[in-house]
Task: structure prediction
Amino acid sequence: MSASTLRGQTFSVGYSLLFFGFLFGPLIIMTITAFNSSSFPRISPWECFTTEWFGVLVNDRRLMGGLVNSIIIGAGVVALSVPVGLAGALALAEIGPKLRSALYTVLITPILIPGVVLGISTIVFWGHIGRQLGFGYDSVFFNGMFLTIAGQVTFISAYAMLIFSARLQRFDPTLTEAALDLGATPGQAFRKIMLPFLRPAILSAAFLTLLASFENYNTTVFTILAQSTFTTALASKVRYGIDPSLSALAVIIIAVTLIGAMIQEAHTRRREAIVTGRASRSRLYGNPIGRFVAHPATIGLLLIALAAVAIWRGSLHDATVCKQEVIDEKRANQQRFLEEQQKRMKQNAPAPQPAQPGAPQGTKNPSPFGGAFGNVAPQSPDAAPPGPPPAQNPSPFGGAFQGLSPPKQ
Amino acid sequence: MDRLKSVFDEFVSRHGIGVALFISLTVLVWVLVLIALPQVAMLDYSFRHNLSPQDIGGPQDVYTLSNYGFFLFRDGSGTNTLDMGVLGKTILASVLVTIIDVIVCYPIAFILAHSATGVAARLMILGLIVPFWVNEILRAFAFRVIFGATGLINGVGMSLGFWDVPIDFIRANVALYSGLTYTYILLMVFPIYNAVEALDRNQIEAAQDMGASWWRVHWRIVLPVAKPGIASGATMVFMLTAGALAAPQILGGPSNLWFTQLVYQWFSDAGNWQRGSAYAAILLVTCLGFVLLMMKVFKVNIGAIGR
Result:
């Protein structure tokens, strides 16, 4: 191995590590913040290990209502865009080259058109039709769910089409011809040859379209009108105040994704081993126990059981003691700070409105002790209203130190 | 028409009348009802006044250029530099994000296609896809956690004493650009990967044997092969970045608007759908025009997109 390829390999490995660090870093950080009891998602300072944010998440009415809408919309979008994409791909595969490039350009544009434009054009168009036909605002033409499905199908079908096109490129048309020669009707040939050939593509298209529908925001935020989907509810939550329950949601999604990916990986490997005939020779697939363990269903069940145990253990975890300690610590700090303040005030002559170094900006501070400081007259912290749980406190020190202002949302 | 008829006959003879009808009707509905007509309707709408429901169809319901005029002149009082500035900035920032994505993704696509093997390659592809199954909103949220005033970077930087006042990454748009770059990485990696994968490794080795330096190998051999992939990825990243709404809403600074946010404001806050449509049309035409111009400059055609 020459020096230059060695250098090249070092570069490859180093760059890959950096790249995947960038890719996974945000996700890892988000995952960790889901377990910190601090009410602003953060890693440092660490307060307490807690699982309460998962409970907060599940009890979020708006998010859960949006989830139901999203599932309905997702089902509708999958049911429509998979056949539409299939039709598009079949049309593209079998027409002349000139017509094909024109049609391809038209069908691919919905992917390129900004989602905002798609959303607007959808509501304007269907609204116009509804008015022309004399329907009122309670008709289907002004229904957020219908409009969202229509708007999403427009471009998500193009994703499905790309998947089908990729698969169709490997289709051998002589198979259909052979079937026809052997006396099958064209319809039979399609059902018995083409559709089975496309089956894996149909599955992946269904999965991808569901995912795309579920996470779409740009189009949906216009077409959903007064209702909300999971993603739009999530977006408004993120815009108007963030807390770690969002991190908890990310943890759930990442966990589900990883489990899915592992099952998929086990499935591909098994399939590969069986197809290449390596299965009978390999140590893993050669004996019944190994075969059972490496079966995707076993792995899936194992992972799901693992997740269930994690959820069960997590639901038992109680962070109140630790949180109480954090509150006490804060109070102690607060107390010390007040005493210092009093001392300084005594030394500093009778200034009627003494400047408070390091005091938080009074009213804007959600800290339980913010009120105590707006009041110049010193009072014991016990007189302050019983501090709400740190869930509402953005900083472990109540903003008393360094004049930390609450996080701007 | 004759051409379409012959195409239809071809379908019938191949797959039977049922499938042929399914294909042609579905594609027709998709192209007309879902793609073309809504755009026409939006364009039509953008030339109308914002009327109350009972005035629609009445004598006041006439075509007007006022919505586009507003974008240029803001009610006749001088040029509307604010909105035009936002559009220009959106385009420039999208170009910047696209360029960063090309630079970041080209090496990884090359490594994936030519250096990684077996398990490593499979893991890398999995690692590329998994982050994109996480909701776009949550990805933006992650960048807020990192870049916020009390976020990770400020926390680490201040506790290590690099700076004492929190740096406002949100206002400086650092968070926004990183978030957008992150969001569309996948759309850049795979087109480049598909293009570069087709390259015969012997060509690279031949060039190396003849003493070409590594950058010369890339410039003269790999890049020309990767070009259609880069064009495809760049087009998608650019269009999606310019049309992004979630990331600017979540990560954008308070005074820094993205053009899609203006569109959104006309719809949601001002309730002026007509002007919103006009702004959406302006965004669409500007972006498509820019992409077509770039395709002319770099001599690629639209057929390469999405491949």
Summary: DSSP finds 16 helices and no strands in chain A. Residues 257-316 of chain A form one domain. Residues 13 and 19 of chain A are 10 Å apart (CA to CA). The mean pLDDT of chain A is 77.
